[in-house]
Amino acid sequence: MSKNVAESTFKEINLENGFHLLEFQNISENVQKFERDIDSTFIQLHFCIKGNSKFLFNGGSYTFDVLDKRSIILYNPQRKLPINLEIYPKSTLISLLIPIEKFHSLFSKEASYIPFLSEENKNRKYYDDTEIKPTVLIVLQQIINSNVNSSIRDLYVKGKIYELLSLHFQHDETNLAEYCPFLVDEQNVLKIRKAKDIIITNMAEPPSLQELANEIGLNIKKLKEGFKQIYGDTVYSFLFDYKMEHARRLLESNQHNVNEVGLKVGYSTASHFIAAFKKKFGTTPKKYVMSLNN
Q1: What distance in Å separates the CA atoms of residue 108 and residue 209, rounded to the nearest whole number?
Q2: Which of 26, 74, 188, 272 has its CA 20 to 30 A from that of 46?
Q3: Could you give the CA distance from residue 25 to residue 125 in angstroms, rounded to a whole number?
Q4: In what order do the strands lie in the sheet with 2-5?
Q5: In whole angstroms, what is the distance from residue 84 CA to residue 206 CA?
């Protein structure tokens, strides 16, 4: 099935036995919405190839963002997780809806390192948010750009989907954290996401871990563990990287000098900011700006 909606496209391929591929491309200037009932027997994988999308649940009372070059996995055997999706302008998203029984049959030998397939977790909800691997991104682009004969396109795409799944869940000894789910109530996930928003909003004067924990309503241990599992980093290491990336973009805008940028990201002295920037990027802010003009 394929249809165009206001300069946007939506394609759906039923690969087999309720195993669906959904492909969204919003090339318009407006937010596009998509809704679909999904029962609790499905695992959902959503890959944002470009742009930004947002999933709304419980009438919008909580949301999951799928950001540029990131993917999320959603599975809850206790309740339905219907798709209520907002696709932002200039965004491309591929979604896979897979019956959990089908998923088990594909990965039966790999259950030991895919947490939600383990016996003790099989009836527990699962949420994961990870960066799309470069190898997976290539396959996603191949699916988007596939122009093979229509009579064999479904077969081509099916092969690519199996390749995508094997690469996405490929065992990586150096990055096991990618498969450590934050197996908790959705409200706790929201609290961790709120913590991230708070430190970004207040990056020039961030709260202490205790203040942050108090504000989101979790103890420090859960804050630290949950943040590491969802974002793959400690709170302040995540914030440091975010501040440096923000500083880099401010420098690229040519609207602020080095001192002003340092103040905006929380450094009261230029020397401390310069040292932090060099630690992150291996060069000073001044040299970085000069390199942009060469």
Answers
A1: 40
A2: 188
A3: 29
A4: 2-5, 8-16, 19-26, 91-99, 42-50, 70-75, 126-131
A5: 34
Report the b/e string of 80-106 with b at 16+ CB within 10 A.
Answer: ebebbbbbbeebbbbbbbbbbebbeee
Q: Edge-to-edge strand order for the sheet containing 62-66?
A: 32-36, 83-87, 53-57, 62-66
Number of H helices, E strands in the chain: 10, 11
Query: Exposed, middle or buried: residue 127 (CB in 10 Å: 0-12, 13-18, 19+)?
Result: buried
Token pair 């150096």 is found at: 174
| Strand residue runs (E) in 195-284 | none
Classify each residue of 189-222 as buried b or exposed e, where b means 16 or more C-beta atoms within 10 Å of its C-beta: bebbbebbebbeeebeebeebeebbeebebeeeb
pLDDT by residue (tens digit) across 7-34? 667 888 888 777 889 999 888 888 888 8
Give CA–CA dist 10/91, Å, rounded: 12
Asked whether 47 and 94 are in contact (CB, 8 A), the reply is: yes
